[in-house]
Specification:
Radius of gyration: 17 Å
CATH class: Alpha Beta
Number of domains: 1
Helix content: 25-40%
Strand content: 15-25%
CATH topology: Rossmann fold
Low-confidence stretches: none
Distance between the termini: 34 Å
Largest sheet: 11 strands, mixed
Order of helices and strands: EEEEHEEEHEEHEHEH
CATH superfamily: Nucleoside phosphorylase domain
Number of strands: 11
CATH architecture: 3-Layer(aba) Sandwich
Structural class: alpha/beta
Mean pLDDT: 91
């Protein structure tokens, strides 16, 4: 199979198929097992883009059951150097409103080691830094795209990643808010970190669908139905943003592309 199918890979929900033109699907076998679904490769603004629904086409894979290593390895295998990870997220701070977009630059892993989160299990000891997982060049590109489109966005933020599938308790959510963290999600770890391990440039786009349960004095606790309703009403803006990012994208050299070789003795 040809390995240079696309430079940009996108993970998201099944609703994103509509922004790909003339796409073809590829089933990729990986050393880490089965991917969430086939990879669709098509055109966006004349450029090849790869897409995979992280929860499967029918949304049957829960966040803790996603095979993140297989998904990331498959994207790398077909030639992707840049990974865009749009996701639904809850707000932990009042100034970040439902419908806003946050380009996270930091993460906090609250999955407590329940997920396979490294490709480097030996025999060569490799320590990939988590200090700045998200690519600053991709974030700058995305911020400029959001500005062009007039979207309501936040240039940076910290996402705390919980295991799921349950939402946080009020006490947990209050704690996360008190730490100054900005958004909460169930899939950003280890997806973006694994992309960094394989020398790719990760970008997070958090679409805020709700206020999390900790802001109990002002809002109702989050429900899945409410999350889906807000996400659907804002998905067109997210699609426009993704298209604009691709339109503005030009290949570049980046420190992300040499991450692994700089992580060994």
């Amino acid at each position: 199979m040809e390995r240079n199918l696309a430079t940009i890979g996108i993970f998201g929900g099944s609703g994103f198929y509509s922004f790909l033109e003339d796409f073809k699907e590829y089933a990729i076998e990986t050393p880490y097992g089965k991917t969430s679904d086939k990879i669709a490769v098509g055109k966006v603004a004349g450029k090849n883009v790869a897409f995979m629904p992280r929860h499967g086409k029918e949304h049957t894979i829960t966040p803790e059951q996603v095979n993140y290593r297989a998904n990331i390895w498959a994207m790398k295998h077909i030639g992707c150097k840049h990974i865009i990870s749009p996701c639904a997220a809850g707000s932990l701070q009042k100034e970040i409103k439902p419908g806003d977009i946050v380009f996270c630059d930091q993460f906090v892993d609250w999955t407590f080691g329940k997920r396979k989160d490294t490709f480097y299990e030996g025999p060569i000891v490799t320590h990939v830094s988590g200090a700045e997982v998200y690519c600053p060049k991709m974030r700058e590109l995305a911020i400029n795209a959001a500005e062009k489109l007039g979207l309501s966005y936040h240039k940076n933020g910290t996402v705390v990643v919980i295991n799921g599938p349950r939402f946080s308790s009020k006490a947990e959510s209050k704690f996360f808010t008190s730490q100054g963290w900005h958004v909460i999600n169930m899939t950003q770890y280890p997806e973006s970190y694994l992309a960094k391990e394989l020398d790719m440039c990760p970008l997070n786009i958090s679409l805020i669908t709700d206020y999390d349960a900790g802001l109990v004095s002002d809002v109702e606790p989050v429900s899945h139905a409410a999350v889906i309703e807000v996400f659907k009403s804002n998905i067109e803006n997210l699609k426009k943003l993704l298209v604009q990012i691709v339109v503005d994208f030009n290949e570049y050299d980046c420190a992300c592309h040499t991450t692994s070789q700089n992580s060994r003795a």
